[in-house]
Amino acid sequence: MGVGGPRRLLTGRVAGHLLAGASGGRAATEGEGLDKGEADPKGLVREAYAIEGITAGECRSIFLDWALSLKAGTDPRAAMQALIADYGAKAGNADHPMTGVLRDGLSAPAHPVRRGGRAARVGGSSVGGG
User: Where does the pLDDT of residue 17 fall: very low under 50, low under 70, confident under 90, or very high at 90 and above?
Assistant: First the structure.
C-alpha cells in the first residue's frame, strides 16, 4: 500500500498505526445494508477507533482519507450511518472523537451565504464615490 495523497495529512503516529493494521474487517454490518468493505474500504475508521488518545483533528484527517477512498456509487451518508451503528454504538465509543466526526458528517451543511459580487458592491452604499 503506497503512502500519498490525503494520507500525507496524517501525523506520523496515526499514519504508522493505519499502515500497520489497515486490512481485515469485512463482515456485514447491521441495518444499513453495507458491509464493512463498502462502508470502510481501507479499514481507516476501524483503525481510528483503535488508536489510543487520538484527537479530533487526527480523526478529521482520517475522515477525509476515508471519504476519498469510498468507491463510486457508495452513499457516504449510508456508510457513515453504518459505521456509527457498528463502531460508535460499542461501549466507550459514544464520546470517541471519530464518533463525533462521523455525526458531524451526517449533519446538514450550513446554508451558504453569498458574499461579494455585484450586489454587495452596488447594494445601497456608495463605495468609491463618483
Answer: very low
15-21, Cβ contacts within 8 angstroms, sequence gap of 24 or more: 17/47, 17/50, 17/51, 18/42, 18/43, 18/44, 18/47, 18/62, 21/47, 21/50
**87 assigned to some structural domain:** yes
| Residue 16: inside a domain | no
Q: Which residue has the cell 468493505?
A: 37
**Which domain does 37 fall in, by range?**
27-109
Please check whether residue 41 lies inside any domain of the structure: yes
- Does residue 77 lie within any of the structural domains? yes
Q: Quote the pTM value.
A: 0.62
The Cα 40–Cα 69 span in angstroms is 8
Span 56-112, pLDDT tens digits = 999 999 999 999 999 999 999 999 999 999 998 887 888 999 999 999 999 977 777
28 beta partners: 35
Overall domain count for the chain = 1
Q: How many CA atoms lie within 13 A of 20 on its CB side?
A: 9
Distance CA 20, CA 14 (A): 10
